[in-house]
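Quick check before the chapter quiz. The format below is the same one you will see on the exam, so make sure you can read both the input and the output lines.
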Amino acid sequence: MRAIGKFILLEAAEFEHWLADQKITRKMKWVQLHHTFIPGYKHFKGDNHFALCQSMEAAHKERGFDEIAQNLTIFPDGKIMVCRNLDKVPAGIKGANTFGICIENIGNFDKGNDAMISQQRDSIVLVTKALLKRFALVPGDQTVLYHHWFDLNTGKRILKEGTGATKTCPGTAFFGGNTVEAFKVGLLPMLK
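Here is the expected output.
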């Protein structure tokens, strides 16, 4: 574990122990999964975890946020950065922030772009499972949320694929796709 200011970098093997030690008073109902789009894999140099998160925070502040939007960031090498206190509401999905933990995954996981490597995939599964367990949430499409499932303007959950104003986030190739059906086939079985 290494820290620079509020940013804490953890090895995947350290995350569950770190999480167990955290005092969290906020009620949680879901875990949000995102991709950064930019920065992507080409921006990750293997040793610039802190620089990337500091840069994202600067960009988020320029957009009017009080700090970095996400609670956690997961890197291609599987390391996890604590970016925003878990007890603080993230700025991840309009309409789904109050009871959420926001995870940004470094990469552009739209088809034809970054191909997720196993270390990152394993950490995404590990972190998501650990958070679900910590907050006594049953894995499913009501407790693990993709940004793509929410209308950007209204903040309401999209009930029919292809309607509303949406992002592709966490990517059209994220664990097989960004739809609810793709989640049920690709990521959900790994969370159970």
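If your answer matched, good. Strands lie at 2-4, 7-10, 30-35, 72-74, 80-82, 100-105, 144-146.
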